[in-house]
TrEMBL record:
One of its GO terms (biological process) is chromatin organization. Zn(2+) 2 binds at residues 202, 207, 229, 232. It comes from the Eukaryota. Belongs to the ING family. The keyword Transcription applies. Zn(2+) 1 binds at residues 189, 191, 213, 216. It comes from Hibiscus trionum. Residues 116-158 are annotated as: Disordered. It is found in: Nucleus. Keywords: Chromatin regulator, Growth regulation, Metal-binding, Nucleus, Transcription, Transcription regulation, Zinc, Zinc-finger. The record marks 188, 199, 203, 211 as: Histone H3K4me3 binding. This is PHD finger protein ING.
């Protein structure tokens, strides 16, 4: 786990510089695009005025199917579209880069939560046996009564530890929410958490869960066409195999 943290931290430190370069290139493309658009607007306005004068003078046939902009104006428009496409591609690259780091962090938090849950389960399992070892030596004297009282306290402590383990299992990432959560708010997804961020719906009308967080089902964007959650997809495959 420490190796993963070191590797993730190294990648994260390089992220700002990479994003800064992409944003700088996007700004340069935007300046070029604005300049080309401005020139094209002026050219087209001038050509429209020339067309109007030609129609009035009878030099141009007033047939809209024959009237068109010059090749220079059309080339400028095509060039503007290419620059706009480059800007969109850079924006998508920047988004995917940040999203990949978020996915890595989610995986780390999930693994950390699982390790913490196992440690607490082991602690809860060993606590009663340790308390029993400390109380079996007491007899029927006054110390024996103190031993039975200590045993009850130990059982309460073990129950509290078990409750804490259950809370951790409900939140496998081990993250504590700063915002108050309404206990009556419905929960969704495989993680059994409330609705947050981007979510996707299962297309099986009989799905018991219905809604899922992108990160929990390894999605980065809304799927095209119908999408089924892992449980419903497995059920459909079993039915097809029969």
């Amino acid at each position: 786990m420490s190796f993963f943290i070191d590797e993730f931290q190294a990648d994260l430190e390089a992220l700002p510089n990479i994003l800064q370069k992409k944003y700088a290139l996007m700004r340069d493309l935007d300046k070029s695009l604005q300049e080309i658009v401005r020139q094209n607007e002026q050219r087209c306005e001038q050509e429209i005025e020339d067309m109007k004068r030609g129609v009035k003078a009878g030099n141009i046939t007033p047939d809209t199917s024959l009237i068109r902009f010059s090749d220079e104006a059309l080339d400028e428009q095509k060039h503007s579209i290419r620059i706009a496409d480059e800007k969109v591609a850079l924006a998508i690259q920047a988004y995917d880069l940040v999203d990949s780091h978020i996915q890595q962090l989610d995986q780390y938090l999930k693994k950390s939560g699982e390790e913490l849950r196992r440690e607490r389960e082991n602690t809860a399992a060993t606590a009663p046996s340790q308390i029993s070892d400390g109380t079996t030596k007491s007899g029927r004297s006054e110390s024996g009564r103190r031993g039975r009282k200590k045993s009850r306290v130990g059982t309460a402590a073990a129950s509290a530890a078990a409750t804490e383990v259950a809370a951790t299992a409900a939140n496998p990432t081990g993250m504590e929410l700063d915002l108050p959560v309404d206990p009556n708010e419905p929960t969704y997804c495989l993680c059994n958490q409330v609705s947050y961020g981007e979510m996707v719906a299962c297309d099986n009308p009989d799905c018991k869960i219905e809604w899922f967080h992108f990160g929990c089902v390894d999605l980065k964007e809304q799927p095209k066409g119908k999408w089924y959650c892992p449980d419903c997809a497995a059920l459909r495959n079993r039915r097809k195999g029969r």
